[in-house]
Amino acid sequence: MNVIVNKLRAANRWTGIGLETLRYAILGREINRGLVFKLFLYWILIITAYIYLNPVMKMIVKMVMNEKDLVDPTVAWIPNEIYWGHLGSAWQALNYAQTLTISMMVSGLVAVFHIITCGLMGYALARMSFPFKKLLVFLLVMSFIIPPQVIVLPMIIMYTKLGFQNHLTSLVIPAIFGFGIKGALFVIIFRQFYTTQPKELEEAAKIDGASAFRFYWRVMFPLAKPAVLIVGMFSFVWTWNDTYYPRMFLGQTDNVPLAMQMSFLDNSIKAMLSQEDAAPVLIEAIKMSASFLTIAPLLAIFFFAQRYLMESVERSGIVE
Amino acid sequence: MRKLVSALRLRNMETLLFVGPWLLGFLFFMAFPLFFSMYMSFHKVTVLPYRFKYEFNGVNYYREILFGSSELYDKLIPFFQEIVIMVPVILVFSLFIAIMLNQNFPGRALFRVVFFLPIIFTSGYILTEFVNQGEGTLGFLDRFSLGQYLNQFLGDSSWAKPVQDVLNRFVLVLWYSGVQILNFLAGRQTISKSAYESARIDGASPWEVFWKITLPAMSPYILLNLIYTVVDMFTFPYNPVIELINTGNYGYNSALAWIYFIIIVSFLSTVLLLYNRINKHAAGAGR
Question: Residue A147 is nearest to which of B97, B187, B234, comparing CB atoms?
């Protein structure tokens, strides 16, 4: 059989050589190896990447334009001069030093607590057998679906009674117990990760007589690095960007996270420029600078961590 | 016997260590607020200095919202229509991009970085800012005067506006796909290379391979993304219904929130039911 195939191939090589190689070069032996496909792929990816990057680039360009360039319609992308003044104004309007510290602390703490509590719960759901487990899974799914708007009013009342209202701890406390922004999703991510780990590990530990808790911290948790990284990243970013809960819980305080201060920006810029009808282009430029300042830390962290993150995504198969 | 009982108790204690914190959290941050908000929805809540006053109001708020005015429906129906269009678009788009990103080509890492950016932006106020700046549109409706054709095609049906809105904010659809792309990317990695190799040896075309191997293997991820997208759209703080929830008094708001929650659950169940049907049908046809 093989001999025949080889002979046919040899024959083919001499008769249709030009056409075949050309065809393979353009269309490819597999569809995803051909030139046409490659071009198509780059075309799609570049277009979508452009759509994603366009606002970011606009933001960065507007941020450094001076007043003259901003009103000049001929200056679209390349400013005549790089002007850093708007960044300074935005820094002031955002009260950056303080709000940045607050955001860092709140988001960092929330991420750490989410990793700990959601990890424990995810492991229990994946690997332990206990009564009412099915019920807990159901409750977990429910708490994922329930919109925060249903429960936020009673939470405000509860916080007021307990004295947490208008205090930054109100943003962190739910995370200690695995709730807060998308806590349920993080449990699901951990659960999925732990389900894919080999069963033999536990048997070995049981024979060695290690307690479940010790085993978890010593063996399973270190193995869960990809899941930890993903949950940590998502938790940090989502808490950082959230304005809903801060708006609800921090109504009357000056200690607000960065994202919330950002949503007050219109007023604080106007107050700073000390007139009601400040030049709109100027406000816009300062706003762009403020947007940049708000996400710059996230971008920095992301560019630093993206390689590990992408590897983790591939390895964890995030959620089922 | 005693030893066995104590061992069992020890194991239960250990389980409690794992489940306990979450369970406490559920009681404090889900169960209690849920019941309390239900209680409030049946009461007229007045804010007095230092305390609240609750007067029993029966189902009056529910009746008022559902039958009294059309406020809810005015916001909800167009929003629904938008969701019905946007969810499939987001899913198909993110699956498509994920498969593209999974190919081996130079510059892959760079593109992946770019496609992660939406996750950093979309959740925040920044996105609202971008939309206000007019970055949310591609502008092609105006450029090719597509709006006219759409009007002709859809006529006076109530779908004309939602379709136009979605097209107008098409960039937003792309922005919303960040997590979904990541999810599909992770899902794609779980399909073994050998499955593809053997299919190719058997002479399946890439088209067939996609429909017979990739899609069925991705099915759970599609389901997850479906749920995630729907929940995400429904709970996004800037959606019109949620803005409505924040405008009334406490009792009214709670009733509205509950109605909204029930709508979400029924919508999700319908979607899941449909998904199951289609999935079963596809599995049957595949055999």
Answer: B234
Whole-structure pTM value: 0.82
B115-146 pLDDT, tens digit per residue, is 777 777 765 566 666 666 655 555 555 555 55
Convert the pLDDT of each residue in A27-40 to its tens digit. 555 555 667 777 88
Tokens of residue B255, six digits: 């009733």
Question: Which ipTM value was assigned to this complex?
Answer: 0.79
Q: At B124, is the secondary structure helix, strand, or coil?
A: coil
> Residue B97: its chain A contacts at CB < 8 A?
44-45, 48
The C-alpha atoms of residue B169 and residue B89 are separated, in whole angstroms, by: 12
Tell me whether strands B51-56 and B43-48 are parallel, antiparallel or unpaired: antiparallel
| B positions 85-104 inside 8 Å of A (CB) | 96-97, 100-101, 103
Smallest Cβ–Cβ distance between B189 and the set A153, A244, A317 belongs to A317
Nearest to A178 among B25, B119, B254 (CB): B25
Interface test with B, best of A39, A53, A151 (most B CBs within 10 A): A151
Q: Give the CA count within 13 Å in the CB-facing half-sphere of B259.
A: 23
Q: Is A320 exposed, middle or buried (0-12, 13-18, 19+ CB in 10 A)?
A: middle
Q: Please tell me the distance from the alpha carbon of residue B241 to that of residue A178, in angstroms, as a whole number.
A: 27
User: How much is the CA Rg of chain B, to the nearest whole Å?
Assistant: 25
How many cross-chain Cβ pairs, A to B, lie less than 8 Å apart? 232
- Give the 3-state secondary structure of residue A142: helix
| Per-residue pLDDT at A92 exceeds 90 | no
Q: Which residue has the higher pLDDT, B82 or A106?
A: A106
Report how far apart, in Å, the C-alpha atoms of B116 and of each of A60, A211, A233, B120, B185 are. 18, 39, 12, 7, 11
Contacts 24+ apart (CB under 8 A), A81-90: A86/A282, A86/A285, A86/A286, A86/A288, A86/A289, A87/A63, A87/A289, A87/A292, A87/A293, A89/A269, A89/A272, A89/A286, A89/A289, A90/A286, A90/A287, A90/A289, A90/A290, A90/A292, A90/A293
Across the interface, whether the CB atoms of B52 and A157 are under 8 A apart is answered yes
Percent of chain B at pLDDT > 70 equals 73
Q: Please give the residue that has the higher pLDDT: either A224 or B26.
A: B26
Question: How many angstroms separate the Cα of A223 from the Cα of each of A193, A196, A267, A316, B134?
Answer: 10, 11, 48, 11, 45
